[in-house]
Specification:
Shape: globular
Strand content: 5-15%
Structural class: mainly alpha
Largest sheet: 2 strands, antiparallel
Amino acid sequence: MELDIDYITEHYSRMPDQELIHVATQNARGIRPEVFGIIENEIKKRNLNPDLLNAVIAQNKEYSFEEISEHSELLRDLPCPICGSTNDKLNGTVSHTVKSFLVFTTYEAEPHVACPNCLTKKNNSAILSTALLGWWGIPWGLLKTPVYIYRNLKAKQEIWSESSNNALLNFTLFKIGEIEAYKDNKEKLRSIIKPK
């Protein structure tokens, strides 16, 4: 499929600044080199933060484990987004919940970055919610509930890790564009890890 460069250029030129920033920091994986040049020109033309270019590059680069760990350290040194504590380095977890209503079952996995105490509370809350509300759906509630309780218990074991755990490394890789764009701006980094 051939790219219509004029159409793409026009599309990006009409894009509001906030949408262009969103594309550059969160939605630039897999863009073609021609489109990269168009985004680069728009960023320069609008006098936007030149680090947005780094975000585009970051999303289209292969990373070593060490590079991902290095980026995760930028997040670990922030205050906890839940309680504000700076006593412990931040880490990550995924809270798994199942809720069932007879024939209807929902399940979700939600990532969190916070201090170990707050992450423990998140996993405990997910375990309690799943234990109380997960069983009531047939067949998925009965099947998913013990699996998700086990996943929460397993996730709790990694929360107090001295180094970045798997949940934080996965979060870091997923948010690598934003982290790269805002690595020198602690307030923007805090917004990346802020609970939804």
